[in-house]
Every structure is written in C-alpha cells, then in structure tokens.
Design a protein that fits this description.
Length: about 850
C-alpha cells in the first residue's frame, strides 16, 4: 500500500519533534542525456535537532532504490529501514543529529520531480524540477512539509557544456575526469521550505541583466538577473521585455513592502512540458514556455505573462519569506500573490486594464469553482497531501484574491500594506497561520478582523446581489433595495456577508455613449439593504451593482437595467463596467437565466466594438462554450453557424495585423471543428488561396486549422505527417498529436483511448494533447467508451501520479452530452453512471472522487441550461 500521502497529523507530530537546520544535496545528472537511463544518484545529508532522546521519525523519498542510510554515523540496512516512500530514522538523540541517505531518484515525464525532456528540434536534453506541493522527495530525501524549513546547499554533476542553476548563487564549477562532466557547487540558501527548492540543467540559452535599489541605510542592493529558455527557442526569446517587467516589479514591491528582496539573485526559466503557469522558487522562478511566443501573440497574452511574472515575484515575500505552516493556509500565499500580481500590472506596467482582465478571467474561474459541490472555504480543511494537490483551485487563487480586494476596500489600502510590512518583519523565514495575519490586520486597521474572517475566509459559496428598484407616480425611485442571497452550499442556510459596494448610475451622452453619472457607495449587510440615497432620484438607464468590482458576488440587474445592457451593451464606455456586466450575463447563462441563443446574439452584437483583446477573447470563448454545452441539440448547429458567420465576416473586415484579426482567425478555426461547411475557408487559409492582409498563418494557426479539419474527417494522417515534417518542434509535436487523435475514425479513437487510459507511455504534455484530440468533434464516437471510463478509474488513479491521473479522469469524463427531448436533466444516463460509481466506491481516494463529483456537476449544469432554453 502506498504511503506517499502524508497526513496533517503526521506532519504536525514530526514538526513537534524536529527542527531542521540544513541540507547538503548532491545530484549526479551525468547520465541524463541517455534516454535509457531511468534515474540518477541522489545523496542528502540532513542536520537537525530532535527534542527527545531515542526517538523515531521518518524521511520522505520517492525513489528507485536506496543504497545507504546513515544516522549519526551508524549505517542501517535499507531493507530494514525503507518502506515504500518512507525511510525510518531510529534511535535519534536529543539535540543535534545528522542523517545521510543515498539512493537512486527517477527522471520524470509527468512534470513532477526532476522532469526530463528531449527537444525534437535538436535532440538536446533539458531538466528542471517542479515540487509543489510535495515532490522534492522525488529528487532527494527530505522532511517534506512546509514548516520544516532549512538552508539548502546543492551540488550538481552534469555535462560541462550545460547550463546548471539552483536557488543559490553558483559558488564554484569544477571539471571532472576528462572534462566532459563538471560539478557545480551552489551557495547555501536562506531558510526555505523543501517545495520551493529548485534545480535546472541542460542545453539552455541564458541571458543576463542587473537590478539595483538603494536601501534605507544608504547602501545599494544589487540583484543579478538571468533568463533561460531552450536553445531552439532562443530566436523567439525576448529577455529584454522579461527583464523590463522584472525590474518594474522589483521596483514596485521594494517600495510597497519596504522589505528588501531577500534571496540574492533573481533567475527566471521558461521550460518545456510544464504543469503550471509558473512556480515561485526563490532565486530561480520557473515558467511554462507557453509564455515564449514563437508565433504572433496578442497584447492580452503579453499582459497575462506580465501578470504571472509579477504574481511569482509577490511570492518572494508572500510564501517564500513567510510560509504557511500547513496546506490549510495555502491561501496565505496564493490569494495574496494573485491580488498583488493584478495590482502590480495595473500600477507598475504599461497595461492599465489589469482589473478588467481579473474580472473577466480570474473571478470567472472562482465563480465556477465556488458553485461546485466540492467547494470549500478559502481557509480550507486539508487533511493530507492529496487534498492539498486538489486545492490549487479557483477558490484558493481567484476567490481569495477577490476577497482581499474586498478587504482592501473595507480596511483601506494603507492599513492593508502596513499590516503586510509588519507581517514580513515579524515572521521572516518562518511559518504562519491565519491567526498571525489577523493579528497584524486588526492592529493596522483598528478593527477586529476575526468576524470578517469568519464571514469571508471560513465560509463557502457565491453570494448573489440583486437590485430591486421601484418607481413612483412621478417617475422617480420610490424604493431601491439590494438583496443578498448567500446560502451555505452544504446546509442551505443563509450566511450573508458584509460587502463594501458601489452602485453606479449610467446614462446616455449626447453622442450615444453610456457613461457613469453618479455613484453611491454603501455597506451591504444582511439579506436586504435599502439605498435611501437613490429614493426620489430619476432612474438611470443602467444601475450597475458592484461598480468598480470591489466585492466578490454574482450580480443581478433590475428589470430596466437588464433591458438596457441586452440592447446597448457595446455603448457602455468604461472597460471595467463592461467587464462586470459581461461577467454577470455569463453567470446568468450558466445559471439557466439567459439562453445560449440570446447570449450568442449578444456576443455577435458586442464583439465588433469591443476594443480589449482579453475581453474579446473571453467573449468568444464563452460563446463557443455556450453553443456546445448550453444550447439544446436541436438548435446547436443553427446557433453555431450564426456565430461562425459573424466571426468569419468580422475576420474579413478586421484591420490587418491586429489582435482582433488574430483572435477572430483562431475562433474561426475552433468553430470549424464541428462542420465541413467551413472547409473552404480553413483550407484556403492553409494554402494561401484565402488571404487577409496582415494575417500571418503561422505554425500555431496552421495547427489550429489542421485540428479543425481533422475533427470533421477532412484531413488525413499523411497530410498531418507532412505538416509535422515542416514543424518538427515541441509545439509542432503537440499540435500534431491533437490533430491525429481528432480524426473521427473508430480505429483512431480506439488507439488514442488505449494510449491515454490503458498505458503510461505518454509524457504529461502529449497525454493532454491526446485527450484533447480524443474529445474533439462530436461525442458519438466516444459513447462506446463511457462504460470503460468508469471501469478504469481506479486503475488509472493507482497506476499514475496524481498529476497525470487527474488529467485522464477530468479530461475524458463524458461531459459533452445532450438532453433528449421530453426528459429531465437528473435522469440522464451519464449522470446515473457517475452516481452509481460514487456509491459503489465510497473508499476511493478522496481526490479521485472529487474530480468525478465536479465533472458530474458540470454536466448537470449544462443539461439544466439546455432544458431552460427549450
């Protein structure tokens, strides 16, 4: 039985017993370029103090064999001390202890531990580590929990012509033997947690720069900067832009936090097959190389990259300098970094619509997550590591950030920053809980923050704020009330929360624009909050709840305001007001209050005048999802065709070389996955017989077009292989894999299903590409795999890491279903099979059950929306 799933109580017991001082870690990566080599030598020497004599505990190590275990100079037989991923330490002495463990760690293809990637473009090998929440134990033996911080010294043996980096500054590099291998020695780190240690090695391209700042004592802080990418990506690398954002961020946070950057250097590596957007390893931040744009990218994509860079930078203080004690308080780093990332983009870069992007993307993610049966409070109950892995979700990130924005409106920005500064100085290089944060917030604001915490951090679910407005005989408001509906997702009882909100009044200008004419700021408390300031005033064309997006809540318009936005939304000039309105309308679609047909019509009217690339992309993405999941089957083709005609028409008229043109071309390709009637345009773009001035049909767009043709059976394997031959890159391989698995041939689907579900041969990125290809096009070919999906769940979970298993379970859930006429959603057979599996498998891992429950709920929501639209 696996013992990898460390429990909270086990971690707490180990923390009471131990204080870890330092690690000395040696990794021999000299064989990494040999694909037949499964693992590498790893040696950890750990110095720690123990509070008891003759005590026992364990070290964590997920390994391919342990060769030596030495405790305080005494060697132990690994056969007697190693059980699964735990190495027992016996007869510890009170006071200082030294443990040395040598073993074989395994190279990874899942993006967990030390990931190994061979570049198809040039055959070079690339390695990087990714540990959150608990995968450092895949690389070296350690006490894998966030509150046992220590100083880490890494030594790495690797080919001499490689770039090698770690958290610390390179202290020495020594050629070995004939000089083909060298040993890199790195300086000790500050006290940090195991999950944010990092090693990078391979044929990386490296760029360098410097950032400096004057400290309060007049001395200068100089921080070396570096940026890495694969050698074959160097021609697409733009380190000057990355360094510019980095310097702006360091300037901003240096002033804001009044605590000098604490980790010496600041490297950033853009790596292949990365599971996350980025990871905040101090001194060596890692990013997905999707943020390197080998083809044309929109301003929204560049803004998203800047947001991620600054999000990770905020972690240097929130998460790295001060770290949560256990994963219950994961939000102490992720919510703050999400909020600070958006704030820094808004105030320190050239992008001024950061909060628009936040409202459109991040909060939308939170609203979806917070309406699932598996929702949880921001301060969550995390009993073990599997639960921790599942809680890197929209609640912890985006809802937490939204609530922090509400907190800033509640206590004031200056009090919030004063509390943050105190928090850093009081707990530097240590670990905290919720109580530690509440203490500094209460002190800085003069308010008792524990009530606020109970109402916002320790409750779950999305409040709904709805405006009810009545007019009198004279045409003025006789009553305006903000109603709050805030049921607890489990009990159903109302748990209203305090909201600091603005009600914005909008009227038409002489030239037809809808602009703000007034604002009422108020505290919404309880179920019903009257707004006496508006009584006796003339109703505006639009009364916008949550103007400025200060709070976290879905909003509903009064009747007159809803009529206005449905009719003239494109005339609403303010970008944030428009984003809030669009978010409200999308939530109404998801809740079955606005039909997919009406939403698509709204998008068709709104898209031509939407100036923001990020908003336009979100609009079109939502419209496509509404068509495929929320439109009844009998009208889906019609509504999709209306959307395609509008998109292709706008594409023909879009200014050349603009973000609008590129977004519309990508959307046309995505819509083309469902009908052969669009093949003329798709093939014309590929061949060049259809050309729009300024539109580059680059490799990214070409693969999107091929995937559309493949999904409708309009492109075959030989054409796809020919395209791959001309784009033999990592991205090309992914594009090809999606397209090849999308071909609607039963034999193709059977082979792809077998590879994804019943083998473990695919790397993380190619597994995701295969899953995407399997699910493209209609679901009829996959109906025969529904039974096998449920029958295979437990074997999939037990045979893979949680990362890869989660991709299979979520990605291949049969969620693309239609509601037959004259039936009710709850009776759908896939929902019944889901419920049957859950009832028959109550002891299945909680993380697995959570995914099935969530996918079941997504399907139920789509079926309900289809039913409501009939």
């Amino acid at each position: 039985m696996s013992n990898q799933n460390l429990r909270r109580d086990e971690a707490a017991a180990r923390s009471r017993l131990l204080t870890v001082e330092s690690y000395d870690v040696e990794l021999d990566l000299g064989n990494a370029a040999d694909p037949a080599a499964p693992g590498f030598r790893s040696r950890s020497t750990i110095h720690f103090t123990c509070s008891e004599s003759a005590a026992s505990t364990f070290v964590d190590f997920i390994h391919g064999g342990v060769q030596a275990v030495v405790v305080n100079g005494k060697a132990y037989d690994p056969a007697e001390t190693v059980t699964g991923s735990r190495i027992e330490l016996r007869n510890l002495q009170a006071g200082i202890n030294t443990v040395s463990i040598e073993g074989t760690a395994l190279y990874s293809r899942s993006g967990e531990g030390l990931h190994r990637f061979t570049d198809p473009a040039d055959g070079k090998t690339y390695l990087y580590t990714q540990y959150e929440p608990a995968d450092a134990r895949r690389v070296f033996a350690n006490f894998e929990q966030p509150d046992l911080k220590a100083s880490f010294t890494f030594h790495v043996t690797a080919p001499s012509d490689w770039e090698v980096a770690s958290n610390g500054v390179e202290a020495a590099r020594t050629p070995l033997g004939d000089g083909t291998l060298s040993r890199w020695d790195f300086s000790p780190t500050q006290r940090i947690s195991t999950y944010i240690t990092c090693v990078l090695a391979g044929g990386y391209f490296k760029a360098t720069d410097l950032w400096s700042a004057v400290l309060d004592d007049g001395t200068e802080l100089v921080v070396p900067l570096a940026a890495y990418c694969r050698a074959s990506m160097a021609e697409h690398f733009d380190p000057e832009n990355i360094f510019d954002t980095t310097k702006r961020g360091l300037d901003f946070f240096h002033r804001l936090f009044a605590y000098p950057y604490p980790f010496g250097k600041y490297d950033q590596a853009f790596v292949p097959e990365y599971n996350l957007g980025a990871m905040e390893n101090p001194g060596l931040v890692t990013f997905t190389e999707a943020y390197l744009f080998r083809t044309k990218a929109t301003e929204a994509q560049y803004e998203a990259r800047a947001n991620t860079i600054l999000h990770e930078m905020a972690h240097m203080w929130f998460g790295d300098l001060v770290t949560m004690r256990w994963w219950d308080d994961l939000w102490l780093k992720e919510s703050f970094a999400d909020y600070m990332g958006a704030l820094a983009v808004d105030e320190a870069t050239g992008w001024t619509n950061s909060w628009v992007s936040f409202a459109n993307r991040r909060k939308a993610w939170a609203y979806v997550q917070d309406q699932l049966p598996t929702t949880h409070p921001i301060v969550a109950d995390i009993p073990d590591l599997e639960a921790a892995k599942q809680n890197f979700d929209g609640i912890t990130y985006a809802k937490g950030a939204s609530v922090l924005k509400q907190l800033v409106a509640y206590v004031g920005f200056e009090a919030f920053i004063e509390a943050s500064r105190t928090y850093f100085y009081r707990h530097a290089y240590g670990n905290t809980t919720l109580e530690d944060l509440l203490d500094v917030l209460s002190s800085a604001s003069g308010r008792d923050m524990r009530l606020w915490s109970r109402q916002w951090l320790q409750t779950a679910g999305v409040p709904v704020l709805e405006v009810e407005a009545e007019t009198g005989a004279d045409g003025t408001y006789s009553s305006v009330i903000v109603h709050q509906d805030a049921p607890d997702p489990v009990s159903g009882e109302q748990v209203p929360r305090p909201h600091r909100v603005r009600l914005g009044s909008y009227g038409f200008t002489s030239d037809g624009w809808l602009e703000r004419t007034g604002v009422v700021e108020l505290d919404v408390v309880g179920r019903h909050t009257p707004v006496p300031e508006l009584v006796g005033t003339e109703p505006p064309a639009l009364l916008l709840p949550n103007d400025g997006d200060l709070t976290y809540a879905k909003i509903r318009f009064d009747t007159a305001s809803l009529a206005t936005v449905l009719e003239v939304l494109p005339r609403l000039r303010d970008p944030l007001a428009r984003a809030i309105t669009l978010s409200a309308l999308w939530n109404s679609v998801r809740d079955g209050l606005l039909s997919a047909r009406d939403y698509v019509r709204l998008v068709i009217r709104t898209a031509p005048s939407e100036p923001g690339a990020g908003v336009l992309q979100a609009l079109l993405d939502n419209a496509r999802y509404a068509v495929e999941r929320y439109a009844p089957a009998e009208i889906r083709d019609e509504v999709r065709e209306q959307l395609f005609e509008a998109v292709s028409g706008q594409l023909a008229e879009a200014p050349g070389g603009t973000d609008r043109q590129l977004i519309l071309a990508r959307t046309a390709a995505a819509l083309g996955r469902h009908s052969t009637s669009h093949n003329e345009l798709l093939r014309g773009l590929l061949s060049g017989s259809v050309a729009y001035p300024g539109l580059a049909v680059d490799p990214d767009l070409r693969w999107r077009l091929w995937q559309a043709l493949s999904a409708t059976g309009s492109a075959g394997p030989e054409e796809l292989k020919a395209e791959l031959a001309g784009d033999n890159t990592a991205a090309g391989r992914v594009g090809y894999t999606v397209a090849a698995a999308a071909i609607p041939d039963p034999r193709v689907k059977a082979e792809a299903w077998q590879r994804a579900v019943h083998t473990v041969e695919l790397s993380n990125e190619l597994l995701s590409a295969t899953i995407e290809g399997i699910t493209l096009g209609g679901h009829e070919l996959l109906d025969g795999y529904v039974s096998d999906y449920f029958a295979s769940l437990e074997s999939v979970w037990s045979s893979r890491s949680i990362e890869l298993a989660s991709r299979v379970v979520a990605g291949l859930y049969p969620g693309a279903q239609d509601l037959p006429l004259h039936t009710v959603p709850a009776d759908h057979p896939v929902l019944a099979l889901s419920q049957e599996w859950l009832e028959l498998n109550p002891e299945a891992p909680a993380a697995l059950r959570r995914i099935v429950i969530e996918q079941q709920d997504h399907l139920l929501r789509s079926l309900r929306a289809q039913a409501a639209a009939r």
